[in-house]
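User: Predict the structure for this protein chain, please.
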Amino acid sequence: MTVTKDAAPQLGLRANMAQFSLLVVVNAFVGAMVGMERTILPAIAEQEFHLVAHTAILAFIVVFGISKALTNYFAGRFSDTYGRKVILIAGWVIAIPVPFLLMWAPSWNWILLANVFLGISQGLTWSTTVIMKIDLAGPEKRGTAMGINEFAGYFAVGMAALATGWIATRYGLRPQPFYLGVVFVVAGLSLSLWLVRETKGHAKHEAKLTTSVPQDLPTQKEIFWQTTWRNPNLSSISQAGMVNNLNDGMAWGLFPLVFASAGMSLTQIGTLAAVYPSVWGICQLFTGALSDRIGRKGLIVAGMWLQALAIMLIIVTATFIWFVLAAVLLGIGTAMVYPTLLAAIGDVVNPAWRASTVGVYRLWRDLGYAFGALLSGVMADLFGIASAMWFVAALTFLSGVIAAVRMQETLRRAD
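Assistant: Here is the predicted structure, written as structure tokens:
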């Protein structure tokens, strides 16, 4: 037991291993809920609902991104106000209709509705598992904790994408692939309801131990603007997160279409859709810990530039092997960035209002899904898919430049 009535909460991964490990499993189910869409939803749009315009096909990512982004913001605020566990449970309850809507949707609008529910659920569940792991880990192994968290989520994204692609190849696009979603919801909700414990007390304890920053709680407006623009570190983190998910939104919507136009089978598309998030997930086990040793800024900048290179490689190649290589590079680049951004927020923000700051960051980061899907869809319709991808690659490279110029190293090393 980490917490008793007579003792203050203990901080650190070792002291909280049981609860931390449980939250890793919960976040794997959270990621799997997204992964079940990544291979087959564009195919469903084209084959079952006969959508042609890329903007219309990618609309499911737009509504997912907007609903998730807005929910992230409130999840952070409500976690600071009401505690973490109740928000986590609420997120799983909202996820209950998602697999059933995806199975039986009579029109594309029902698919969009499913993604509104999915986005809200993801905003509540993923945000809360991030916040709870930061609470438990304390300041010493924050990057490691975020690496493990994001590994669990995105490796599960990849495995669910692979599984649904395999099932769809053998049994059809619907409803069989989405049976997995029912399992994910039942497992995630059960674990969250019966076994997960509240971690807000850990954050309060860490705040009491923090003497280097003022303890006066800023207003939500102040937190929003500091994270969005005024604080160079936090705003650099926010824009990098947004552009990272912008290119992921593009990849989610356009990559299956690119692979299909290159003659890839549904099984190959499922494999490619799994490689990128799986590599992303696995590598975060190392990049999160690496950021605790060498710092945050270099990994963020180099990771954004590697993502840009990977997107360009997909544009100029047309074979399965080259697509796999590009997906691996994209996964590595994203892994360099994703846990490091969250760890950097933990470096510079007081624990008393850390959840709110994470909520603002994740608001901007996950709006990137919507911006990426909308921007790439419109550009693909007007100028072609290749032009849309070149533009997103250029934005990703520019984001790395902004972080290089504006951000300072946030890791405070012990003397």
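The chain has a mean pLDDT of 89.
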